[in-house]
Amino acid sequence: MTTYDDRASLADLTSTAERVRKTVEAVIEGKPEVVRLSLTVLLAEGHLLIEDVPGVGKTMLAKALARSVDCSVRRIQFTPDLLPSDITGVSIWDQQHQDFEFKPGAIFAQIVIGDEINRASPKTQSALLESMEERQVTIDGNSYELPSPFMVVATQNPVEMEGTYPLPEAQRDRFMARVSIGYPTPEAELQMLDVHGGRSPLDDLQPVAHAHDIVKLVEAVRTVHVAEAVRRYAVDLVAATRSHPDLRLGASPRATLHLLRAAKASAALSGREYALPDDVQALAVAVLAHRLLPTAQAQLNRRTAEQVVLEILQHTRVPAAPQAQHNGYPAAGPAGGGSYGRPGAREQ
User: Fold this and answer.
1) How remote is the C-alpha of 2 from its chain's centroid?
2) The pTM is what?
3) Span between the terminal Cα atoms of the chain, in Å
4) Distance of CA 154 to the CA centre of its chain
């Protein structure tokens, strides 16, 4: 049952997220929607793929998000000669103790920045699969848990293809969302010249939240309620990708789970304890598009996965807010009488 104390604690947690957002926006000018999506993925326990042309601030965004939180950060520059053991770690024979000693790799950090991830070989890319999905690393039959919170922020350049290895579908599916920063507006670019002209703004960036604050935020996101109608709406959207004539590969059940988690995080960032269909709609392109494979005919017609998702959003019925009551009290929910809130939730 929801109480005023519960809402106050949620407000305290969202204020922490707001501080992180403002800190990152001080570095990435003119892209509030990109910063919000990055924070949404962090609170939804997901991983973020930043895909855009060179020089628009992909690595800067990843670094700003990492530095705004006081937690362990490791940066991996992906190159063709990078080995899987450089990421996961390796067991080394200890002559003194006559036993193997495990030396952790770069993946053992709370925020891992993978720069130009598609420049590493598929064998090295696959070293991330277990850690991104199960949050652990297995070396020589022994499993080692990764710290919490744990997030991989990877960047890649979709234009320059020489010397790169495209991410396999299994790897792309482990990223909760993909974001493109895009070019700044003339006003934002002019402001960037003033801010970045003399020195990097990252030099003055100080953490505004601790790792345990992020853990509390993640726990708050887990408690966000999602009504059955909203869950079914997410399932309908994902199911539509599997039968669309322009797609030869639709979204996986993991995509449905990621879409739901991201919607809950978005609701928490908005100060709500329940998710709306609007949360699902706003995140559908970022969460689903990078997992989809268009058919050859769709590619000839210059149809992108993003366009297909937008078309599916237009043709999928949005659930109406239910008229819910409990013990004579209307359930707390959006204006207009409908409710997506917790069943029976009311003020005490």
Assistant:
1) 28
2) 0.87
3) 9
4) 11
